[in-house]
Sequence to fold (129 residues):
Amino acid sequence: MEATSKHFWKRDAIYNCLRHTDTHPSAESVHQMLQEEYPDISLATVYRNLALFKRQGLIQSLGTVGGVERFDANTDPHVHFICTGCDAVVDLPQMAVPQSLSQEAELHGGCHVESCQLTFTGRCARCGA
Fold:
């Protein structure tokens, strides 16, 4: 019973780590953030739970940024900006994802859109916009 209890503590810690950051971390970053409080947490445990959270719809993958998959616990439709210079991923909360994009995709694709991710790429102000 103790092992199961520890397992859920780790799972909760991983999910809470994602929920309380806006950096859109990679699995490796989540692992590093948790190491001090949970020194026995393995990178494999982090990966396994991130995959579970994705399947459950609790988090979303933003795809690969700089060759590394990045994650977001905010699954509401929102806009991202990814810097091609420093690989920063930031939310653009002042922008809304236009519903018309999903409707147009359904019209032209003959499909039902379940979600839409809108991501801009370019260089941030620090990298020389």
